[in-house]
Amino acid sequence: MDAPARALVAPRAVWRGRPHPLGATWDGAGVNFALFSKHAERVELCLLDPRGRREIERVPVRERSDFVWHCYLPEARPGLLYGYRVHGPHDPDRGHRFDHNKLLLDPYAKMIQRGRGQVIDTAFTWGDDRPPRTPWQDTVIYELHVKGFTERHPDVPQQLRGTYAALCSSPVIEYLKSLGVTAVELLPIHTIADERRLQHHGLRNYWGYNSIGFFAPEMRYSATGTLGEFKTMVKTLHAAGIEVILDVVYNHTGEGDHTGPTLSFRGIDNAIYYRLDPAHPRRYLNTAGTGNSFNAAHRVVLALIMDSLRYWVEEMHVDGFRFDLATTLARNTHGAYDRNVAFLAAVRQDPVVSRVKLIAEPWDLGEGGYQLGNFPPGWAEWNDKYRDAARSYWRGDDGVIGELASRLSGSKDILEKSGRAPTASINFVTTHDGFTLQDLVTYEKKRNEANHEGNRDGTDNNRSWNCGVEGPSEDRLVLELRAKQKKNLLATLVLSHGVPLLLAGDELGRTQGGNNNAYCQDNEVSWIDWAGADPELLAFVTTLLKLRKRHPLFRRRTYPKPEDTSWLSPEGREMTGQDWNLPFARCLGCLMVGQRLAERDERGEPIVDDDLLLLLNAHDDAVEFTLPDSQWEVLLDTSTKAASPGKSYPLQARSVVLLARPSTGARARADA
């Protein structure tokens, strides 16, 4: 367990120490300190009082091995706060920004308290903890913010709300299990640096995409101030069968551009840790759009990233990572995206990291940054083309049914070329970045004034539809249409091939008042309003996820084939090229034959399902959809007018219907 209360003994002896591992390492007898800096001329280890306000000793670090400065303090103990002063040239035109007046964070600090690194004892009783290792095809990801998810939760004790401890409390665990998700994807929990501009306006970086410590969990989400709290959260979620995926931000740091603060990397070795403009080394290349780009092409920076990833898997037991703006990490020394770049190669061959879930956000803001479908085998990718197709279709756009069919089928056109299956597509309609589902059917214009950027931030390409009234409405017909549109979008998402990602709170009807970029809103704009939850929508989503779990046709590991899947027109015949290109075509069906599902389970037994018929109608009018054969049963209808299937089905305006009938194989299985 962590031991922040241990007595601190001012070190009286300084030993040579070792250059590895980097960081501050407690070995049971003392603490080894090791810091990389190629261009430093002198390094001082600074020890601080328990409050982190005053230096109590400066220790010259005299030993240097392969540019690693190191020493060993035999009398140091866990709980000690420390930092570094690094001496060297301040010559921005050559890329150097050393300033020994700055007390710097250790890049390998495992705990950051009061703005300083803290020596820790990593011991923890994991007991029989085992990673759930949920297969990709069975995975349902739930993206949430540690604080925002429980800050207003009425059943979580007040003193725990907004913390790691709250996320593993009984009410939250029971909720996640009953909902039916298999993994939580946590918005960044690496230690966060708040931007000065936000602090000036009384705001903070709520989302957390501004990391400054890649080994240290953010302590603003801790009720106890200990590492054990995070580990207990992971252990408890695992016991409930829920995986923990971290959203990680290795593409840049919280030090910003050349005018930003010197907190760590900049003052330790700026020319190593950042990608600098070759023509103007005082400035940073900025493919992340945040002021700087981490230099993952350099061996030392790459080693730090890989050490961090291994640490979170081996020491913290997390189950995977979603890499923010992953293209930046995959740029070579010339700045171009390269599938064989050192970072991707290192991940591929690493015996620890390569075995967990790896998800790329396959773009950044630099030239050639959009790389959807171009990451190598072993990687899944956020599929924004899925989002755009689903939103456009249910908005009522023309000419998108072909695109929608490709996305529903697992995006073979995007992923197969790199040898990947439908499970490499992370499908989503909403995420933290953009409108919530409620706002997607309520607003056509963003409302971001609270961010103090003149409403210029956030995208204008929302592909949203307000159902006839902008903003909140009391009109019954508008409210009914919005409720149905939410169900349509959710049903489309959950019943598609690929891995569904749900934004926490969408199942409750959460709104951000039209703010589609609430990155700095650490308040009721972002926190989930549990008291205002929509119980009908929650029940609908729970039913959807049960349907997905019950029917392997929605969880297939291979792409649909002509013999098991066909697309139908409202007349009940297979779609032709002309049908796909008809103007105003907004209605289609997908027939999936369960008997012909050419997949086997882990024991080698054939997987058999019912025959399923998914019908979608984005028209403003009802459509009489001719059914193939008969004996169909209604499993789902997002309208309020579910009917008994006969030779046709009255598919209501703007609705999704799922029908089922036993296949020959399913009947045989039932009889057995």
Average pLDDT for all residues: 95
Strand runs, count: 30
Unreliable runs: 1-10, 665-672
What's the end-to-end separation, in Å? 53 Å
Number of helices, where a helix is a run of at least 4 consecutive DSSP H or I residues: 17
| Helical residue percent band | 10-25%
The assigned structural class equals alpha/beta
Question: How much of the sequence is in beta strands?
Answer: 15-25%
Q: Biggest sheet, open or closed, and with what strands and sense? A: 8 strands, parallel, barrel
What would you say this structure looks like, in words?
- The chain is an alpha/beta fold and 672 residues long.
- It is 22% helix and 20% strand.
- The protein contains 17 helices and 30 strands.
- The chain has an 8-stranded parallel beta barrel. The protein has a 5-stranded antiparallel beta sheet with strand order 4-3-7-11-10, with no helix packed on it.
- α10 crosses α11 and α14 runs parallel beside α15.
- The longest helix has 19 residues.
- The N terminus and C terminus are likely disordered.
